[in-house]
Write a sequence for this structure.
């Protein structure tokens, strides 16, 4: 049993017979007394829902913002990234399963007690521009995000979530004014994939992508392309057309390479040719910015001006070089670069 210091959860309501109804993510768990929800980090104690991760930070690192990945949000800046254990999904290909899955299996919820104030102090001390809620799934450490993000804004820092997009609208409404940018997974474009591979559903994710875009956060989308599961050209085209039509051509799409992991060791890494084809599909759909990640030697890492095609930013690993972006404008045609804080990166050779 976790310490009695664990705190009361937000976004739930009591039901009859000591049960509670969690309204934090689209599983909408009904949890009997003395049991936990599907995520394993929200527990009903005598008719009251508690979070087990309010201040249990399991991972804390200073990262380039490009690592989230966010390529159009204050490029070249640092973000203090944190996560707790637990996740509301059970993706068999999870690359962070040692952090995300143990609570779902009834194992201990590990982490250090760090206060919101200490996290924000650490970000300021490290000269970070933002704090990122990432590594596992920020939805399930919602209360910690609310605490830290409010303090971060007071100190002039921005807030980023990296999420599977399976939260509720209630969750997004609370986060609305606190979050500045998001990278949301669009893992596939079929209900079957979400149900059978992730233990979730597609529709809430599509709805949330539209809601998030409407909230005015800077939004980028990531798809991990897994051979034989979501690499069908028709499915990729449907994803690209959804992003273009429902979110907007300026929303960047990151195509990430699969590596065998967790319970999915039965298939090879994504072939470079598949990633190249997916990149073409994104561009043909009219997306301005399509990126290929988790692989070297494949084009699709640089940011080009969507008006004249001039290469503005070139990336290597998580490093970024500014080739032609001056005060946020393309040096060749004067077009404003799409994103937020694009003026924050100085032109190569200037300070
Ligand atoms: S966050 Fe989601 S998975 Fe966890 S208890 Fe609430 S509804 Fe269930």
């Amino acid at each position: 049993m976790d310490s009695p210091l664990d705190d009361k959860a937000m976004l739930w309501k009591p039901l009859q017979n000591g049960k509670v109804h969690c309204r934090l993510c689209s599983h909408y768990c009904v949890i009997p007394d003395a049991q936990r929800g599907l995520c394993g980090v929200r527990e009903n104690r005598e008719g009251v829902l508690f979070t087990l991760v309010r201040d249990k930070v399991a991972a804390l690192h200073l990262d380039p913002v490009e690592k989230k990945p966010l390529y159009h949000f204050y490029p070249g800046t640092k973000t203090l990234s944190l996560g707790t254990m637990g996740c509301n999904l059970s993706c068999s290909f999870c690359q962070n399963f040692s952090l995300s899955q143990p609570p779902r299996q009834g194992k201990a919820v590990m982490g250090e007690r760090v206060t919101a104030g200490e996290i924000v102090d650490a970000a300021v001390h490290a000269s970070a521009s933002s704090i990122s809620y990432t590594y596992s799934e920020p939805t399930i450490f919602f209360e910690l995000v609310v605490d830290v993000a409010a303090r971060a804004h007071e100190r002039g820092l921005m807030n980023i979530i990296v999420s599977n997009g399976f939260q509720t609208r209630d969750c997004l409404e609370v986060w609305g004014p606190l979050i500045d940018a998001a990278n949301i997974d669009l893992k596939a474009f079929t209900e079957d994939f979400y149900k059978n591979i992730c233990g979730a559903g597609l529709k809430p994710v599509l709805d949330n992508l539209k809601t998030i875009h409407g909230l005015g956060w800077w939004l980028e989308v990531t798809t991990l392309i897994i051979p034989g599961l979501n690499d069908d050209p028709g499915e990729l085209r449907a994803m690209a057309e959804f992003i273009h039509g429902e979110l907007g051509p300026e929303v960047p799409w990151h195509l990430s390479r699969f590596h065998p992991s967790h319970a999915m060791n039965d298939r090879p890494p994504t072939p470079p040719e598949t990633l190249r084809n997916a990149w073409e599909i994104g561009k043909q759909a009219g997306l301005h910015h399509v990126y290929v990640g988790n692989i070297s030697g494949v084009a699709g890492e640089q940011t080009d001006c969507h008006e004249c095609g001039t290469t503005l930013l070139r990336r290597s690993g998580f490093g970024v070089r500014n080739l032609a972006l001056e005060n946020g404008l393309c040096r060749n045609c004067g077009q404003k670069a799409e994103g937020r804080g694009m003026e924050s990166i100085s032109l190569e050779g200037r300070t």
